Amino acid sequence: MEVVYEDNHIIIVNKAAGEIVQGDKTGDTPLCETLKQWIKEKYAKPGNVFCGVTHRIDRPVCGLVVFARTSKGLSRMNELFRLGEVKKTYWAIVKNTPPREEDTLTHYIYSVERNNKSYASATPRKGALKSMLHYRIIAHGDRYHLLEINLLTGRKHQIRVQLAAIGCPIKGDLKYGAERSNPDGGISLQSHRIEFIHPVSGKPIDVTAPVPNDNLWQALAAAIPSSSEL
Q1: Distance CA 88, CA 192 (A)
Q2: pLDDT tens digits along 137-170
């Protein structure tokens, strides 16, 4: 676990692929519990430690997750997420070339609990939620492309299913059409940057995750033209 930002009310962690943010039916130790223990030991806190989950990213995804250290921080961060006032930027590696260098995708996404999978429809349908994201290609490699993605809505598996819908499944994402899994069992999708106005102090918070320690990630990041905005 890597803490990349911390103050009295919030703490931002760089999550590894494979970690779960909040407890689920697997019974595996979630990141929120690991973080509670880290806070308890760092500050020698007696008794229970508060650590609130403000949002989640999928288990196979790596990158930034915001937690709350106080109930005030939790309620106010929840409100920021509800109002769409937290800007989340993702990086994704895909093998197939997207149809356009840059585009805004709109689909209607619905989920099927039986197989824990989401599906994208090009037209409205019952039970489906309108879903939008903007992507642009920021680097090309010999066989793969690096995309920067801004979520305009927040739906279950949204980036994964929308990229798959345009023929560009994320590397390693077998559930949504990738040819093979990644060695670590994760997928090549990173919660790369988070920006918001601190809900208590009012100061701007802008945190960027380090590029994953992986040869392909490092090579594609190095190929980003210097004029691109990260």
Answers
A1: 8
A2: 999 999 999 999 999 998 999 999 999 999 999 9
